[in-house]
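Entry 14. Structure prediction run on the chain below.
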Amino acid sequence: MLEQTVLVCKPVGSLGYVVPGSLPGECSQCGKPVWIAPSSWFLLHDNPETIILCRTCGFANMAKDKGEIQELTPAQVEEIQEYLKSR
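Output returned:
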């Protein structure tokens, strides 16, 4: 069975930090709008078969199928570090 690549994203309208430069996308399962950070747009470009899920759908799917969680990319780490510096 082939593994699917899934990107779990922050829902638009949820409280909290949004990475500058984030663009709206859509959850592939429920259709709700999500924020996709710039680093994740590169992942989507290089892996167009990636499934985009909101946190609610993503976490529900993880409860059913543990899958494998990938390490953060250097660009994602940089976005987190920029956020921590801004606090």
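Residues 6-86 form one domain.
Filed with the rest of this week's runs.
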